[in-house]
């Protein structure tokens, strides 16, 4: 049943029926002051950065998409191969299918293959499932340290547990390695509802070091669940929250202000490299994209690599047009009033 649900999610998002009520990410309101004399060449722009101690080619992250049905194996393989070729980090999708016993699906089947394909770049994934791993002994050897909740608007088959996640950061059983784990928190209860500054600070105080804002304005998991609802009542409950959440732009600014030393990932409705530049200007260290990549991921690694390469070129042009030689300069680029 879990695999079927994940398969339905893919179909709905690919069809475009998983969008919210039309409310934007807020990034469209961020407008740079154009620099007519950048005093540098386009090729001089340096987009390189470091993520979890590893150098990456650009501040882009392939965000969590799917870890459930059999077709996800091909999607995830395409993503992994493209990330390896472009030197970009990758986030895995839901781990619940693997942890609940379907070893042929999710992380249980493809973890080794992913790591062979992405030998140099960070991989990480879901988090509500840490409690499952801890209590059921599954998922050993994973490279992720994560945190996300399934939408509350899902039927009973979905994940609704929301207790105890900050405490995971303090529990040594969730990490077998040396030193503090780079815990990641994302999505919030409701999926794409955004991370507030207050909750971000609570997570930071609990030991979470990487915060993915997963703001509203892109895929709405309430809208997705409304599409696959079993009854009109279930659809009505979910559809009422199709526009719920903190817009991505506001979430990034709030989280950065609340946690100045955290690694902040700006995600939620990121459309292109210009949106990535806007998110970085607001305080994101990295920018994540998921739904915008899904169609390419169904085609092959070449399509994924081309999509990401276009985003990187757009981000480079944004830096050039603001006179920013690197990401540090982009974060200081002047904005229009």
TrEMBL record:
One of its GO terms (molecular function) is isopentenyl-diphosphate delta-isomerase activity. Residues 202-334 form the FMN-dependent dehydrogenase domain. The keyword Aminoacyl-tRNA synthetase does not apply. Its cofactor is FMN. Its EC number is 5.3.3.2. SUPFAM superfamilies: FMN-linked oxidoreductases. This is Isopentenyl-diphosphate delta-isomerase. It comes from Rubellimicrobium thermophilum DSM 16684.
